[in-house]
Design a protein that fits this description.
The protein is an alpha/beta fold. The chain folds into two domains: 172 residues, 3-Layer(aba) Sandwich (Peroxisomal Thiolase, Chain A, domain 1), CATH 3.40.47; 155 residues, Thiolase/Chalcone synthase (Peroxisomal Thiolase, Chain A, domain 1). 32% of the residues lie in helices and 23% in strands. It is built from eleven helices and 13 strands. The strands form four sheets. A five-stranded mixed sheet has the order 1-7-6-4-5, sandwiched between helices. α4 links the parallel β4 and β5. α8 crosses α9. It is globular and about 55 Å long. The structure holds acetyl coenzyme *A. Acetyl coenzyme *A binds next to α2, α6, α8 and β12.
């Protein structure tokens, strides 16, 4: 059995900063409400004509990750691309990255697990490395939320939370036992699939039906979120899956050097931090600046934490995510 380690990290966010005050000009909301409930101060939105898309931002983040891993695109054996906001209904973003980065005809796999998409994608890549099939896998999380949100007052409960951006890591084969990805833990509970969902356009709700029905509420082509229900489940599942990872490795909460939770909502992260009695320096949050970037939130935060020198060799890094599906997961990583 081989071992896998993160050999490079990178992220990219669009330049266009959208503050809470900017949003309050187009819908009935305000800075105090948004900050109090979510901790978000601003987020990035792709601006029409700035040349960005989900796959293009994925490429920009990947180029940085590859450079830091000191690898050329030719060295990559597989792409795993996580997003809920692909450029096209099909094919997915993975093949677009393969083409744009001029890679060999390597496999490109798309992961659709929303907020836990990056942890799922990392886990998939980890299995391919550990079995010896591949040496270097590019794992990407990228989202263009602003292209698909309802920016009228009707959509304010959801649209103020989400932002655009991308993060990427290169996962590489390593011969160091006890280093790199120690374990990953994945779960789902589909009975809650309707509590946080975007229904269409899909084969169940195709375009003519949407146009014909033209509903005024719960529009199927905008995301729906039962916020309080999601909150209650998130705090339970985050805690469970972090404990599951620690237990599997005979580790304690005190062993955590850095926890990077999916940036769902600052209140959720703070709840977990308090529950585990972790000091501020042990939990990384950047949702204040980027909002919730779904599959991109963990790799963006990881890339920033790494650049700020918050990860030292030997540190125990814990990644944890929860989201639509519901799906959730964690990764235990010895840096
Ligand atoms: N600005 C101002 N008022 C708003 C806004 C807004 N952007 N959005 C909703 N409101 C209003 C509502 O209309 C409602 O008004 P009413 O009382 O007159 O009916 C009032 O604020 C309270 O609305 P709630 O939905 O009950 O607000 P809540 O306190 O639950 O906060 C929130 C909403 C922030 C979404 C909260 O439920 C939450 O934190 N949920 C966790 C889910 C989450 O963070 N998801 C992130 C994405 S999913 C993921 O990544 C896992």
């Amino acid at each position: 059995m081989y071992h896998s380690k993160i050999s490079g990290v990178g992220h990219y966010v669009p330049e266009n900063v959208v503050t809470n005050d900017d949003l309050s000009k187009v819908m009935d909301t305000n800075d105090a409400w948004i900050q109090e409930r979510t901790g978000i101060q601003e987020r990035r939105h792709i601006k029409k004509g700035d040349g960005n898309s989900t796959s293009i931002m994925g490429v920009k983040a990947s180029e940085i990750a590859l450079e830091r891993a000191r690898l050329k695109p030719d060295a990559i054996d597989m792409i795993v691309f996580a997003t809920l906001s692909p450029d096209m209904y099909f094919p997915g973003g993975g093949v677009q990255v393969q083409e744009m980065m001029g890679m060999r005809t390597i496999p490109a796999l798309d992961v659709r697990n929303q907020c836990s998409g990056f942890v799922y994608a990392l886990s998939v890549a980890d299995q391919f490395i550990k079995t010896g099939m591949y040496k270097h896998i590019l794992v990407i999380g990228s989202e263009n939320h602003s292209g698909g949100l309802d920016f009228t007052t009707r959509g304010r409960g959801v649209s103020v939370i989400f932002g655009d951006g991308a993060g990427a890591v290169v996962l590489s084969r390593s011969d160091k036992e006890g280093k790199g990805i120690l374990s990953t833990h994945l779960h789902s509970e589909g009975k809650h699939k309707d509590e946080l969902a975007l229904q269409g356009p899909s084969t169940e709700h195709w375009v003519p039906e949407i146009i014909e029905e033209n509903p005024q509420e719960n529009i199927p082509y905008y995301p729906y979120m039962n916020g309080q229900f999601v909150f209650k489940h998130a705090v339970v599942r985050f805690s469970e899956v972090i404990m599951e990872g620690l237990t599997a490795n005979n580790l304690q909460v005190d062993d955590i050097d850095l926890l990077i939770p999916h940036q769902a909502n600052l209140r959720i992260s703070q709840f977990i931090q308090q529950k585990f009695k972790l000091t501020d320096d042990k939990v990384y949050n950047n949702i204040q600046r980027y909002g919730n970037t779904t599959a991109a939130s963990i790799p963006i935060a990881l890339s920033e934490a790494w650049a700020e020198g918050k990860l030292q060799e030997g540190d125990l890094l814990v990644l944890a995510a929860f989201g639509s599906g519901f799906t959730w997961g964690s990764a235990m990583i010895r840096w």
